[in-house]
Amino acid sequence: MINIWKYNAGDAVRITAITGEILEGRIECLTEAEERSDLERQEDGLGLDTYDGRHLEIYQSEVKDIEFLKGARSAEKPRAAI
Fold first, then answer.
1. Closest CA to 30 of 53, 58, 55, 52
2. What span, in angstroms and rounded, lies between the C-alpha atoms of 37 and 66?
3. Tens digits of per-residue pLDDT, 16-38?
4. Whole-model pTM above 0.85?
């Protein structure tokens, strides 16, 4: 299982889900299982603001891989390679 706690809010990342879906965006927040209500799944997760305008909650067990994108610690979307 991927350790999501080595990433921070604001990091630009590419997440590969266990389903094979690839998501790119900025981490908005990290949430510990203990912070969730009794109605939510009791698992660590992260909020992701994707570059195509979605906000997703991704649980740790749903993540196959996370990569930093170039410019990961800047406030702007990474630029495409030329």
1. 58
2. 26
3. 999 999 999 999 999 888 777 77
4. no
